Amino acid sequence: MLRLQGNEMELVRKRVWLYRVAVAGLVAVLLVPVALVQIPPIVDYPNHLARIVVLAAGASDPFLSNIYAIHWDAIPNIGMDAVMPPMLAAMSIYTAGRVMLAVAIVLPVFGTIAYSRAVLGVRSYWPLASGLVAYNAVLLYGFMNFLISVGLALLAAAAWIRWRDRYPVTTTVAMVLVASIVFFAHLFGVLLLGLLIFCHEATVLVSEATNGRLQLRQAIVRLSMAGIIFLPAAALYTRSLAGLEGAGTDRYPFDQTLFELFAPFLLYYRRADIALALLIVGIMVACAAIRKGLFVPETILALGLLLVLYFSVPSVVDGSHLTIRLSTMAGFLLFAGFTPRALDPRISRTICIVLCIFVVGRVALVSQAWVGQNHDLAELRQVIAAIPPHSRVLATGLRRSDNVAYWNAMPRRRFVLESIPTIDHLPALVLIERDSFWPLLFARPRRQPITVREAWADLAGTGSLPGYHVLATDFPDRVETDKWSFLPNWPAKYDYVLVLLSGGAQDLERVRPDRLELVTRNDMAALFRVRGSNALR
Q1: pLDDT band at residue 242, thresholds of 50, 70 and 90?
Q2: Fewest CB atoms within 10 Å of the CB: 151, 161, 222, 304?
Q3: Which of these, 477, 476, 505, lies nearest to 490 by C-alpha position?
Q4: In the prediction, which pLDDT does 334 show?
């Protein structure tokens, strides 16, 4: 008997070792694209890095400190802003950025694995398939703080489930601190953490009631301890609401709302990505149909509540995308609260092999797309190298209507969801590498810990790049100036004009020869000196 127990222990150790090897292999595969490119084609990513440069420089850079004021407050979206500036003492901004990008990619996968282990009570290989959604539309948009908060929320929920009944007071106190940290990473992480804890507590209480063991005092204590966790985060949120009155909202048409349900799987080929999502759901449904799948009730409840919320809230509030974040959280939960069980070994191996192929295939697709970014970066750097430090640079770009054929022929890496340009914030390199100003740095008091000083406010704004045709006049029309408040009288404000995707701008040199003098140009970008600029004198 003792020998049998020893053999069983050895078998358990071997299985744990194999599982850890599988997790390590998954992480290694997922990080391949991060190692291949210095600045990946992610929409918001360059702007995040530029803001970190401003925060790290502080008052030590007289030019940047004259433009931007740093203010730390209860802002629920500053995870990277708080962590990255000290990192620049030991590494470059681009290395620090890739470290945080790796965290944003891997942490939700770790969280999915940990949460699955907590709710199932056993190790399962199914949550490793969350590697299929580690690269997703939200990542390509650049919502890295959000993804980090999702990973933290899943890890924290797993800790609550495993230790709440064993160490109730210690776990509650620890979770108060964790929930506050998650708040500063991103507000949606607190939402997910609260949802997962609520669903767990609800299923425990329902189970106790079903078995006739539920006592009112027990229910009050459990719910009170769960609620205490979020009191500091709630207080911080109340503070962060200041100034949000009248925030604009937008609701997408139903077909687009339905499309964004697939956001966790969406990369560069929407039909193939949607087919993959349907395959995953199909495997789960098939397992359920033959009673070979284990669904965790609390996770099913969480998915249901996320779905209700998804179709209830506005798509966008104050420029922040809501629905796409909710669908991304649901995407990770698909792999966290389910596992196939008691399948025929051949079927299990087949599913495992198929999912491994898809994970490697998706990572290979991302790698191929991202490597092409190196060429774009080289051409852009060749152009901006001519910008003197401390310049004021107006960035514009090509829009689809300017050259449809050129636009449609561009590589897929330049788009998110096949339509949103990923290059709009690449001019942030003007600040990072040339110590110069450009208008569209993220610097909103309610959203970021930096603001533009009053003397420079007329030169700054928000949004995407304006099309280069706005340069045709010193005073663009009302529609354009409402969208880009910094455009009126632009020749008097800026020293240089940078035009992205200039290879498709066939009439570029004829737009304003009286105001613009060509400095250098290639397919990726063109740089013009503004004639008569006050700053050049």
Answers
A1: low
A2: 304
A3: 476
A4: 94
End-to-end CA distance of the chain: 91
Cα–Cα dist 119/127, whole Å: 12
Q: What is the sign, positive or negative, of the torsion defined by CA atoms of 458, 459, 460, 463?
A: positive
φ, ψ for residue 340, nearest 5 deg: -65, 150
Instruction: Name 111's Cβ contacts closer than 8 Å, sequence gap at least 6.
Output: 150, 151, 152, 153, 154, 155, 158, 332
Q: What is the Cα 281 distance to its own chain's centre? A: 24
Pick from 292, 265, 295: nearest CA to 348:
292
Q: Which residue has the tokens 């090897």?
A: 21
Residues in the chain: 537
Between the alpha carbon of residue 524 and those of residues 37, 379, 515, the distances in Å are 17, 6, 22
193-198, long-range: CB < 8 A, 24+ apart: 193/152, 193/153, 193/156, 193/157, 194/230, 195/302, 195/305, 195/306, 196/115, 196/153, 196/154, 196/157, 196/160, 196/298, 196/302, 197/157, 197/160, 197/226, 197/229, 198/226
Q: How large is the angle between the packed helices 79-87 and 93-120, nearest 10 degrees?
A: 130
DSSP β-ladder status, 496-500 and 525-530: antiparallel
Partners of residue 415 on adjacent β-strands? 421
Question: CB under 8 Å to 514, separation ≥6 — which residues?
Answer: 531
**Between vectors from CA 160 to CA 139 and to CA 17, what angle results, nearest 5°?**
70
Return the residue matching tokens 């020998």: 3
Return the half-sphere exposure (C-beta side, CA atoms, 13 A cut-off) of residue 250.
9
Place of tokens 């990973």: 151
H/E stretch holding 394 reads strand 393-397
The residue among 537, 115, 181 whose CA lies nearest residue 337 is 115
Strand 393-397 relative to strand 496-500: parallel, antiparallel, unpaired? parallel
Token pair 């909202």 is at which residue?
Answer: 249
Each residue's pLDDT tens digit, 275-328: 999 999 999 999 989 988 888 999 999 999 999 999 999 888 877 889 999 999
**pLDDT attached to residue 113:** 97
pLDDT of residue 534: 60
536 confidence band (pLDDT: 50, 70, 90): very low
> What percentage of the chain has pLDDT greater than the value 70?
96
CA distance 88 to 56: 7
Dihedral angle sign, alpha carbons of residues 152, 153, 154, 156: positive
**In the predicted structure, residue 44 carries a pLDDT above the cut 60:** yes
- In 3D space, the residue among 145, 241, 230 whose CA is nearest the CA of residue 179 turns out to be 230
Considering only CA atoms, which of 200, 91, 188, 203 is closest in space to residue 149? Answer: 188
Query: Which residue has better confidence, 287 or 1?
Result: 287
Q: Is residue 463 within 8 Å of residue 414, measured between CB atoms? A: no
* Dist CA 339 CA 348 (whole Å): 11
Buried b (16+ CB within 10 A) or exposed e, 517-527: eeeebeebbbb
Dist CA 105 CA 89 (whole Å): 24
**Domain ranges in the chain?**
72-369, 373-536
